[in-house]
Amino acid sequence: MKTQTYQAKFACIGVIALLLLGTPVAMQQQAEGARTRLENICTLDGQREVKLTGLGLVVGLNKTGDGGKNLPAMKALATALKLMNSPVLGLDELRGADNVAIVMIEATVPATGIRRGQKIDCYVSSFLGAKSLRGGRLLATPLEETDISTDRVAGIASGAIRIEGDKVFTTGKIPNGVVIENNFINGFLNAKKGGIITLMVDSHKASFHTASEVAYSVNSEFGFESGKEIAKATGPNSVEVHIPKAYKNDAVKFAARLLDIGIDMPHTQARVVVNATTGVVIVTGEVRIDPVVISHDKLTIEVGGSGGATSGGRFVSVPQLPQESGQSGSQLQELVRALKQLRVPNKEVVHIIRELHRSGKLHAVYDEH
């Protein structure tokens, strides 16, 4: 007996990408019924990133450091010299040390974990008066977890700093600059519950419906060989899965097969994401607009109206959805397309969408950053 699979329930809707005056405004309408693997929308509970931080010294700068004028930097340099058996009598001896900078160091242990001796990247940032970190090297610096209950040294950071941008020179990256000193093993199996793996649905996909579909897909895949349902949705973003007896001694193999299961996404939540700085607008799902008239500068926009003429200025009419669609209102995609044709600046488009949201006429989750 073959494993049951879903049949696509809805026709695919292509991704719509629009550019406004040379700036990308992506109108993404994800395909309803689009098939994806669970690993693309779920993670395993227990698999989490760990942040490491530390305070260190960068040396070798070309008179762009902060050591000669900032007391904290001079104290840190004096401490470093003392640890290297080269103590100074007073901080006055370090007033000319403008090739040194005190920096904050950050690194991230991946969610999959890491073993002692392996290396990860780190980022350094000046927070005093340094003008540039270009050409500098970070002295060996211990890094710790941000969890205050843990005071162990998690890694040692050091190396040459690479400036990635051409405008900001006070932050940089050290590729493979952290040597891990302790094992980070992120378990995904809850042995206390008798061997359960919890699938965590991505926050942008989480819903009761999606969690139910995930559980159904898992049960369809393993139901025959297990003889029972092994997955149960416990919330909009979590699904508990019992490991079948055949995989009790190989949880990793089961997790790999679990995340490889295909699922037909029944729908995409209507969402509008706006970046006011860059003018990028991303639309997912069926985003509807109620009938409304918008007056913006010399532009008049009629959404879902009769399309009557106006006196003076520019006029945009956005038609309603076809009656056979079973929905009222108009599509946001049509409005943006019409504004593009009139060469409306990106920032004005963002303002218009923002006001539609504030007025309650925009039917979607609105996220502006």
Helix-strand blueprint:
Elements: E1 16-20, E2 23-27, E3 35-37, E4 42-44, E5 50-59, H1 71-83, E6 101-109, E7 119-126, E8 137-145, E9 153-160, E10 171-180, E11 196-201, H2 208-226, E12 231-235, E13 238-242, H3 251-259, E14 262-264, E15 271-275, E16 280-284, E17 288-289, E18 292-296, E19 299-303, E20 314-318, E21 330-331, H4 332-341, H5 346-358, E22 362-363, E23 365-368
Parallel strand pairs: 15-23, 19-20
Antiparallel strand pairs: 1-2, 3-14, 4-11, 5-6, 5-8, 6-7, 7-10, 8-9, 9-10, 11-13, 12-13, 15-16, 17-21, 17-22, 18-19
The number of domains is 3
The string of secondary-structure elements, in order, is EEEEEHEEEEEEHEEHEEEEEEEEHHEE
Unreliable runs, pLDDT <50, ≥5 residues?
1-33, 321-329
Strand percentage, roughly? 25-35%
Helix content: 10-25%
SS-based class: alpha+beta
Mean pLDDT: 81
- Alpha carbon gyration radius: 28 Å
Q: Enumerate the strands of the largest sheet in spatial order, edge to edge or round the barrel.
A: 5-6-7-10-9-8
- Report the major sheet: 6 strands, antiparallel, barrel
Shape: flat
The count of helical stretches stands at 5
